[in-house]
Amino acid sequence: MNWEYICDHFFTRLTPWIIDYHPSGTFSPVINLGTLLTGQWYLFKPAPTKIFQYLKSPLSSKTNVIIKTPNRTIKSSSSFTGNVLKLFLGSVVSQALGVLVAPVVTRIFEPEAFGVAALFISITGIITVVACLRYELSIMLPKTDEEAANLLGLSLCFVLVTTVISALIIFFAGDVIANLLHSPEIRKYLWLIPVSIFTSGIFLTLNYWNSRIKHFGCLSIARVISSVVTQTTKLGIGFAGFVSGGVLIGTSILGQVVSTFILGSQVWRDNGGLFKENIRWKRMIAGLKRYKKFPIYSTSSALLNTVSQQLPVLLLAAYFSPKIVGFYALGRMVLGMPMGLVGKAIGQVFFQKASDAHNSTGNLPEVVEEVFKRLVAIGIFPILLLTLIGKDVFIVAFGTRWAEAGVYMQILCIWSFFVFISSPISTLFAVLEKQSYGLLFNIALFVTRAISLIGGGLIGNARISLVLFSGTGTIAFLVMTFWLLSCVNISPVRTLNIFFKNVIMCIPILSIVILCKFAFNFTPLLMISIGIIGSISYYLIIIKQDRELQKLIRILTKKLGFGK
Question: For the chain, what is the mean pLDDT?
């Protein structure tokens, strides 16, 4: 199947005149919205053959290309926002599919099924994050693609080793794992863990290679197609009467396989020759030694961080029931949708941008502050709003039996905001090669979270467990953010000013929400309507103050036919 053809026609109606030119000298007609602002894309009217031949000819990555059209002359330029938009659009579509089917899925599947699936995802998530021993992060750092290609090969080797080890553990200790989690039902699905680790590990490695070559478009397509396959299969099997947790697990793995195949096919088509010519055992071993800090510090740090993130699922299962785990899983998933929608796209492009700034341009403080301000501005209002009306949202969207999940989401909102703003910034541990400090932070985070959740479990109250978990996590991520920003000469006073400026902007709108909810006792549906109106008002203010976003919106409206 020609995925290039699919990519081409997926966005054709939105951006019919965009051509992708890679700095490596290869040409690809993959179309993707948002690339008007990036250095690899060139805009023109339907062109004669000479233009295509010119674009196919080799150019250096630093060459500025100017293409003249009957109406305009466009010069290539690099844009952080354009790259983010490519990933953002893929996230929008894939997340939107999840949002659309969620009200149906929650009425087909019981909370217990969500709990079993959440346990499986927690286990695989913990292992996958260290499947490459974090060498996938090093792919972004070398100055040459040849060295980066060998790091990609090294990462894939570790994925294979991790998969084999996990399969052996499941074979010999599957019953022990199920008993520890107090979930006998999950035993029959544990054999799928190595499959999930293998596909997720490969996708993770290819993901960072894609970021290095700034080919974010195909990554978006892979995510969208994966989401379509996952959600449609889930609904079809559910309507057929199969509503166990295994269905949620199996459809999730199917989506992973599809996205990995799409991304792998595109990467091999574009860079297969580079891999064949340059990947060698000696060079991989050299890369293993050169970037040894990643497995020594980053692996332990990432493992602790991921385990601490999954502790609520694991400990809620141990102290309570799969139903409680299901409530938490849905609350966390819905809360992660608006945050993950933007955060992952910004984080991935920020890592590439920060690496370039640190190695070449020397403007790392400016890059970091720009991204941090945008993260705070984007995330703070919806989080504060959901803290107030989260339960109302769940009652309307998923039914009254999921109201407790809405309460859990409200408890986790503030913590989620600080995770959202700190996750992209945390890549500075790798950029500045301060992985040892990242390890110390994650050790402290793990210990405080474990104490909080175990304390709530011993008390026998799931809400108290989550309140303690959220509180300690908020403090930890706040401290980490301040420290990392200070490492790039952004003072705590400057950081506080950014926070307070955006909080003040939220107060007028949130005051109306509070008044309607607590003074007038509006119904959940009315509260959601007010929340939507308030959100639109807030983001209009944000756009008015951000010239780059204004420029981006003008370009998009023109391409969609709403402007001249």
Answer: 79
